Amino acid sequence: MIPALLTDTVTLNLDRALYLTLLWGLEGVELRTIGGPSDRVPFVNEEKLRRRLLENELPAVAVVPGMFEGSVRDRRTWMNEVAAFDEVLSFCQRIECPCVVVSAFAAEEEGTPVEKAAQALQMAGEKAADYGVYVAVLNEPESAFPTGKALAMLLQAVNHPAVGAAWNPGAALQAGENPAEGLQALAGRVFLVRCSDWRIDPERGVWEPAPFGEGAVGWPAQLRLLREMNFAGPLSLEVHAEPRTKRGLHDATRLLQLLRQVRKPMSATAER
Question: Are 135 and 89 in contact (CB under 8 A)?
């Protein structure tokens, strides 16, 4: 498993993001917005990005271009996104990035037709496979497929080897799912894991960011399950609380501690 940082959850400045990634002991970066607020991959300073990644010996484990965020019923929009997907995939090849994270469409009151969402992802998967890149579909609280079980159902309908899950247990928790059950539903289909922790504010009754490993997600169990599944992909840290650098340092440190524990031989773990 590769501990990484979703950089723009801490800073939009590329140099500072890479510096913090190394300082915190993380081993890769997930890239979404770099530079200014509107500088979304792949429309960024690519020459600088490639040079800085090489200089810092950090891989780009995934990019997030902002695909499939709208309604699946808006066929024109997502068809245009699929048509422009080659630009994203070419960018991935040039920066040696193996994965594109996409959304699972917006939730709708009348429900989201699974077959239409699957069609869009199948088309994206076909293109990605030609470039040797994977597509990871992210479950989010406001998406049409917010839980592990819902995402597994969608991926079963897609049925393409280049299309898997960007598993977000924090989002599944907020959607009312037991994160352990959600991950088990996705067994064998997880390409990337988003790492954040959450808890209920007792006064307001709403979800709030928690220090990593201290919330309701149950990260020790998540990491053990991922190890049992032989997951070897990115664990991408999202930082939600202020101050970002202080919370990021805490969360990265705790993630690495938990990761070291699950990497220990099973006999050593049992002895403890």
Answer: no
pLDDT digit string, tens, across residues 195-209: 999 999 988 989 999
Which of these, 176, 184, 3, 67, lies nearest to 167 by C-alpha position?
A: 184
Distance (Å, rounded) from C-alpha 165 to C-alpha 82? 18
Tens digit of pLDDT for each residue in 134-170? Answer: 999 999 998 999 999 999 999 999 999 999 999 999 9
